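Postdoc handover notes: sequence design on the structure in folder B. Input C-alpha cells:
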C-alpha cells in the first residue's frame, strides 16, 4: 500500500511534467499496471526530463519492447482517486477486447462460426452478435449506441476460438491416438494404490485430512515431499537449459484476467475459487500460472525481435473441481503444485504458434521418457478444447491400479484468443502492430506425476524404485521404503466431565 501511495501522489519540482520511473519499485510498477489500466508498464529507468508533449490520459501508452518512457504525471494526479477507489472496490478494469470484428460480423462467415460453436459444446450465439452489430451501424442515439456496444462485447467474447483442421469433432471419446511410448509394467503381485503405498512408507496422508482442511486434500512428507521437490528441480533445470525464463508468479489474480484467458469465474460450473470481495478486493485464486503469466503482458506492445518468448513458472494451482470415484486419492485435488510453460509468438507466417506448440510438446515427451513412463499422446477433440484453445495435445500415462490412462500433461495453442482480450501485441520494425499468439503447456503436474511414478515403480515388499534422473535431487536415494521407526497416528476423543478436569 505504501508503494501505491508513492506512485499516485508524487512530489514534483517546479516546471517538472514527468516523473522518472527509475525510482519506482517492482511492486510500484505492478500496482500501477493493476490499479490503472490507462497508465503504463516499464522496464528500465530514465532520467527526469522536462517535456511539453504530455500523452493524453485517455489513451494508454503501452510499453514498446524494452524501451523506456516517461510517465505523464497529469494522468496520475487527475485520476489517482478514481483508480485507487476502482482497485479497492471492483478490481482491474480492462478495455473491451480487440476482437476480429471484420471476421465475426461478416455474414458470409456466420454458418462457419455457428458450426464451430456447435462442435465446441454450443457456447456462444454468432447470429445475435451479427444482429447487434447491424443495429449498432444504423443507430444514431448515443445512449442506445452505448448499450448496444456493451451487449455486443458481452455476446462476442463468448464466441470460442477457431479450431485446427486436425482436431477431431466430438467429445473425449473421439480423441485420436498419435503416439505411444514404453510398455505397461507386468506385475507378479497385486499392485497397490499410491495412497496405500504412501501410507505404508510414511510419505503420504490423504485420509483424515478433514480435521485440518477438507476433501480432495493431502500431505506429502518424507520421501514423497522430497520427490515433489526433485521433480520441480529436474523439470526447471531442463526448461532453463532450453532457454526458458523463470518467473515467480502471484496466486491472487483479478477475475478479468482469468476471464480474458478463457476461464469462467462465475456460474455453477466454474472451477475458480473467488475471494470475498468485501474483504479481499476483487480477486481469485489462480487455477494455473498460465493466468498470471498471460496477465504479466496485459496492455503491452512487444518488439518483434523479442519473440518468441518462453516462460516457466512453479506455482500452487487451486481448483474447485469435482470428480468420479476413479479420481479419488491424489489424482484430482483442490490444490497442487505445477511447473508450467507459457509462450508468446508472432503471427507473420501463421505457423509460429503451432511450431512453439510442437516445441512444448517435445519437451513434455522428453520429461516423460526420462522418467521411464508408459504413456500415449492424443489429439484432443473439439469438445475438449474449451473456449481459448485452437489445438490441444494431451499426454496420458498408464495408471495400473485403476487400470486407465490418466491425463498428466497437456499443451494448447490459443492463437490470438487471449492476446485480443489482454491487449498483447507486437511491433514490427516498420512500426505496424499485430496481436501476438499465446501457447501454454504443463511441464510437470506434481501429484499426478508422483501417482504415476509410485504405482508403476512399486515392488512386492511395498518399496518404490526412484527414477534415475531424480536420484541426484533426493540425496542419492534409489528406493522409497518403510522407515525403521514410522510415526503412527492414533485418533482419540478427549472426554471431559461436566465440571471440567482437575489439575
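Designed sequence:
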Amino acid at each position: 500500500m505504501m508503494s501505491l501511495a508513492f506512485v499516485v501522489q508524487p512530489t514534483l519540482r517546479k516546471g517538472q511534467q514527468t516523473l522518472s520511473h527509475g525510482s519506482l519499485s517492482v511492486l510500484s510498477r505492478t500496482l500501477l499496471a493493476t490499479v490503472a489500466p490507462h497508465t503504463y508498464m516499464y522496464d528500465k529507468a530514465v532520467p527526469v526530463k522536462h517535456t511539453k508533449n504530455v500523452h493524453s490520459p485517455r489513451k494508454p501508452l503501452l510499453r514498446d519492447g524494452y524501451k523506456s518512457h516517461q510517465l505523464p504525471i497529469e494522468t496520475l494526479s487527475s485520476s489517482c482517486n478514481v483508480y485507487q477507489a476502482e482497485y479497492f472496490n471492483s478490481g482491474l478494469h480492462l478495455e473491451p477486447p480487440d476482437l476480429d470484428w471484420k471476421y465475426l460480423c461478416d455474414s458470409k462467415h456466420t454458418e462457419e462460426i455457428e458450426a464451430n460453436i456447435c462442435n465446441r459444446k454450443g457456447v456462444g450465439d454468432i447470429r445475435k452478435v451479427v444482429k447487434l452489430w447491424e443495429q449498432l451501424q444504423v443507430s444514431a442515439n448515443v445512449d442506445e449506441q452505448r448499450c448496444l456496444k456493451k451487449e455486443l462485447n458481452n455476446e462476442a467474447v463468448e464466441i470460442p476460438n477457431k479450431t485446427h483442421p486436425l482436431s477431431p469433432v466430438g467429445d473425449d471419446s473421439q480423441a485420436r491416438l498419435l503416439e505411444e511410448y514404453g510398455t505397461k509394467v507386468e506385475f507378479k503381485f497385486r499392485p497397490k494404490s499410491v495412497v496405500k503405498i504412501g501410507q505404508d512408507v510414511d510419505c503420504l496422508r490423504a485420509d483424515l485430512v478433514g480435521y485440518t482442511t477438507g476433501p480432495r486434500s493431502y500431505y506429502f512428507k518424507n520421501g514423497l515431499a522430497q520427490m515433489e521437490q526433485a521433480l520441480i528441480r529436474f523439470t526447471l533445470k531442463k526448461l532453463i537449459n532450453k532457454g526458458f525464463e523463470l518467473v515467480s508468479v502471484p496466486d491472487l489474480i483479478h477475475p478479468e484476467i482469468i476471464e480474458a484467458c478463457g476461464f469462467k469465474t462465475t456460474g455453477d460450473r466454474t472451477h475458480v475459487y473467488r475471494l470475498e470481495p468485501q474483504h479481499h478486493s476483487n480477486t481469485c485464486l489462480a487455477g494455473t500460472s498460465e493466468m498470471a503469466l498471460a496477465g504479466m503482458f496485459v496492455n503491452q506492445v512487444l518488439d518483434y525481435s523479442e519473440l518468441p518468448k518462453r516462460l516457466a513458472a512453479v506455482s500452487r494451482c487451486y481448483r474447485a473441481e469435482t470428480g468420479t470415484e476413479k479420481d479419488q486419492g491424489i489424482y484430482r485435488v483442490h490444490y497442487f503444485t505445477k511447473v508450467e510453460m507459457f509462450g508468446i509468438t508472432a503471427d507473420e507466417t501463421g505457423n509460429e504458434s503451432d511450431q512453439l506448440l510442437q516445441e512444448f510438446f517435445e519437451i513434455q515427451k522428453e520429461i516423460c521418457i526420462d522418467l521411464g513412463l508408459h504413456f500415449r499422446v492424443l489429439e484432443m477433440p473439439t469438445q475438449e478444447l474449451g473456449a481459448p484453445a485452437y489445438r490441444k495435445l494431451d499426454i496420458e500415462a498408464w495408471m495400473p491400479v485403476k487400470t486407465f490412462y490418466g491425463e498428466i500433461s497437456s499443451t494448447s495453442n490459443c492463437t490470438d484468443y487471449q492476446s485480443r482480450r489482454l491487449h498483447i501485441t507486437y511491433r514490427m520494425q516498420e512500426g505496424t502492430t499485430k496481436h501476438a499468439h499465446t501457447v501454454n503447456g504443463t511441464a510437470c503436474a506434481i501429484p499426478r506425476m508422483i501417482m504415476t511414478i509410485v504405482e508403476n515403480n512399486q515392488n512386492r515388499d511395498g518399496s518404490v524404485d526412484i527414477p534415475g534422473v531424480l536420484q541426484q535431487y533426493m540425496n542419492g536415494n534409489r528406493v522409497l521404503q518403510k522407515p525403521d521407526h514410522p510415526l503412527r497416528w492414533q485418533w482419540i476423543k478427549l472426554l471431559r466431565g461436566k465440571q471440567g478436569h482437575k489439575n
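Context for whoever picks this up: The chain has a mean pLDDT of 81. Don't rerun without checking with the PI first.
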